[in-house]
Amino acid sequence: MNKEVLKDLSYGVYVIGSKKDNRDVGCIANSVMQVTSSPATVAVSINVDNYTNQAIKESGIFTCMVLPTDIDSEVIGTFGFKTSKDVDKFVPFETLDVDGYPILMDAISYLKCQVINTIENGTHTIFIGEIINSDKLNDKEVMTYAYYHEVKKGKSPAKAPTYIEEKTVKGKKKYICKICGYVHEVDELPPDFKCPICGVGRDMFEEIS
Questions:
Q1: Half-sphere exposure of 35 (CA within 13 A, CB side)
Q2: What digits encode the pLDDT tens for the residues 80-89?
Q3: Which helix (H) or strand (E) holds 129?
Q4: What number of H helices and E strands is found in the chain?
Q5: Band of the pLDDT at 163, cuts 50, 70, 90?
Q6: Which of 99, 107, 134, 176 is deepest in the core (most CB within 10 A)?
């Protein structure tokens, strides 16, 4: 089976939020889709080992924020490569309060959903939620998952449902970002290189074998 064909499917890039123990939590997701129009429902796939998965199961609520192409790379680095168990992810960013849930002001739009069904599918839980609140914040261009990979040169977190392990190019060196875990393969990392995920400089990368 050639898993590369899965990259031809269309996805967006979203921040999924929830609450656990009265704390705001969240993570990056790309597998979000509309299920029905009346009532308006959507489905999102979240890794079972993800802290946000536990939060959604406990609270029965999740928010979905649609990200634009010009989103700050720190948003991707924070929500995609750190855990809400250790980090208050929303703190560094400007947010809008929606019924007690923080929404990133730089998002294009948001949905707030009540979970009405769940499907356990091995490594991931599919949450189906009925939309109970939503709004548009701006008219920026939506960042597709293809744009994230091809233009932003971003990588999927290992827990993402669309994660595909990439083969190492023979003869290339591998450098890992100590902040977000992004791995870059190149002959030599340029002095002015910046992480496409979290934006840190070359000094925060180390070569790995």
A1: 19
A2: 878 899 889 9
A3: strand 124-136
A4: 3, 12
A5: very low
A6: 107
Nearest residue to 18 (alpha-carbon basis) of 141, 110, 112: 112
Q: pTM of the entire structure?
A: 0.76
- DSSP letter at 76? H
Give 20-63 as a DSSP string.
ETTEEEEEEE--EEEEEETTEEEEEEEETTSHHHHHHHHHSEEE
Compare 158 and 148 and report the one with higher pLDDT. Answer: 148
Residue range 168-180, pLDDT digits in tens: 445 578 888 877 7
Cβ atoms within 10 Å of 125's Cβ, excluding its own = 19
In CATH, 11-150 is 2.30.110.10: yes
The boundaries of every CATH 2.20.28.10 domain in the chain are 173-208
Q: Give the tokens for residue 135.
A: 């709004």
Structure-block tokens of residue 150: 């091809």
Instruction: Let me know if domain 173-208 sits in CATH 3.40.50.2000.
Output: no
Q: For the chain, give every residue range classified as CATH 2.30.110.10.
A: 11-150
DSSP letter assigned to residue 8:
G
Quote the CA–CA distance of 46 and 53 in Å, as a whole number: 6
